[in-house]
Design goal:
By secondary structure, the chain is mainly α. It has 14 helices and two strands. Helix 2 runs antiparallel to helix 4.
């Protein structure tokens, strides 16, 4: 083989390797050729779902969060139980709590009609979280695409890795750090609790505990819908003031000792997080910007890329 032929072979191999690397990276234009209308199809589908039920915006953002914290952002949370799959849907943090599965399936069906076997459920869920925020006047952010879907789920990891509403601040910081997210990211992402609702049994201990970190009037108001016994599944808005709008009122509530969940109010217990809470309570633009940045970081936790994983035909089952 002469020098010229060797040069051609080396050049070809470099181009091949470079192409493989490019294909195994997330990109905002990932579906530009293979399914150019995917993003708009998903956006319209999510918008219709939230117009029917505004609470669904919070549910979709939470569903994305619960997906990414278990095995990375791979749509594992959407898989149903089978003889070989222990569904994350039945994990303690998700059971009778996580919602929006049918909304993602509906968006998937629409995309499949346009581009069969091209767009992953993981990407649909990631886009849905962003579109849900926008639908309730929240921030938007750039979403890079190209995730693939897992063929496994982990109920065990869902039970251990998803943060508890009763967790200490150190435990919360550690849980987020384990996913590559810092304390500032954690506070920003907690701001998603500016919308949505919580079940009584998750905040009963806080409102009846007579602690110093809760406003007495706020506790009395919350007790009306959450008795000391019974009513475990009674729902209460996480933000009483603007429960259906994505704004920075959640942080104002924390400053006033009016956080509904212990894991929310505890953000005011140490300077490492309370300073950020105060900043966001005063500056809604700063919160919106940091929330978008944190959502991008979270959405890129351990994605399956390239030839890893699959593109599911339906989100609840392996092909």
């Amino acid at each position: 083989m002469n020098r010229f032929v060797k040069l051609i072979v080396v050049t070809f191999m470099l181009l091949l390797v470079n192409n493989m690397v490019c294909e195994a990276q997330l990109s905002a234009t990932f579906y530009a050729r293979t399914c150019p209308k995917a993003v708009s199809i998903i956006r319209n589908s999510i918008s219709r779902a939230i117009s029917r039920e505004r609470r669904m915006a919070a549910s979709l953002i939470r569903l994305h969060f619960h997906d990414c914290f278990v095995q990375g952002c791979d749509a594992s949370i959407l898989l149903d139980e089978t003889p070989t799959i222990q569904s994350e849907k039945t994990a303690i943090p998700n059971l009778n709590s996580a919602r929006g599965y049918e909304v993602i399936e509906a968006a998937k069906r629409e995309v499949e009609r346009a581009c069969p076997g091209v767009v992953s459920c993981a990407d649909i869920l990631t886009l849905a979280a962003r579109d849900a925020s926008v639908a309730v006047s929240g921030p938007s952010w750039n979403v890079r695409l190209g995730r693939r879907d897992s063929t496994t789920a982990s109920r065990t990891q869902a039970n251990t890795d998803l943060p508890s509403p009763f967790a200490t601040l150190d435990t919360l910081v550690s849980a987020f750090a384990n996913k590559g997210l810092n304390a500032k990211d954690m506070v920003a992402l907690s701001g998603a609790h500016t919308i949505g609702q919580s079940q009584c049994f998750l905040f009963r201990g806080r409102i009846y505990g007579n602690a110093t970190d809760i406003d007495a009037g706020f506790a009395r108001t919350r007790k009306r819908g959450c008795p000391q016994t019974g009513g475990d599944t009674n729902l209460a808005a996480l933000d009483l003031v603007t429960p259906n709008s994505f704004d920075n009122n959640y942080f104002r509530n924390l400053v006033q000792r009016k956080g509904l969940l212990q894991s929310d109010q505890i953000l005011m217990s140490a300077p490492t997080t309370s300073r950020t809470v105060l900043d966001y309570s005063r500056n809604p633009r700063l919160f919106a910007s940091d929330f978008g940045s944190a959502m991008i970081k979270m959405s890129e936790i351990q994605p399956l890329l390239g030839q890893n994983g699959i593109i599911r035909k339906v989100c609840s089952a392996i092909n």
